[in-house]
Amino acid sequence: MIGRLNHIAIAVPDLAAASARYRDLLGASVGAPQTLPEHGVTVVFIDTGNTKVELLEPLGEGSPIAGFLAKNPGGGMHHMCFEVPDLAAAADQLVAGGARVLGEPKIGAHGRPVVFVHPKDFDGTLIELEEV
Ligand code: CO
Q: Which residue from 75, 91, 106, 110 lies 20 to 30 Å from 84 (Cα-Cα)?
């Protein structure tokens, strides 16, 4: 069921500074910031050609990445996102196999449904699945 790597997400304490690093030091194509209040983050996507990097900065009170940044104040890798053709079928397969799918699907940063899988069920790495 797993498809291509859609993006790798990095939680950052300063989105403007991180965006400038990718643009100025790596010459990357850096998108405009998007606020996603439903997800409690502001995101910037960087197109690296074969995949994307998603920079995440906390937005508002109770952001889901606030705890991560408290533990990793300089930022760090937050999740990987894989594409799947059928999100409901993928979630069912994961649950049947004993993995914890976190909540119901939500519309993600690309306007498509996404779900997250508990990092303790994937070697310490939070996994996002996006239906494409
Ligand atoms: Co993501």
A: 75
Q: Which residues have a beta carbon within 5 Å of ligand 1, which is an ion?
A: 9, 54, 81, 128
Question: What's the pLDDT at 124?
Answer: 96
* pLDDT value for 92: 96
Question: Which of 54, 128, 130, 131 is flagged as catalytic?
Answer: 128
Ligand 1 centre to CA of 2 (Å) is 15
pTM: 0.91
The CA–CA distances, whole Å, from 111 to 73, 75, 106, 108, 132 equal 29, 25, 9, 5, 10
For 6-55, the pLDDT digits (tens) are 999 999 999 999 999 999 999 999 999 999 998 899 999 999 999 999 99
| Domains of the chain and CATH, by start | 5-131 (3.10.180.10)
Please say if 128 is a catalytic residue: yes
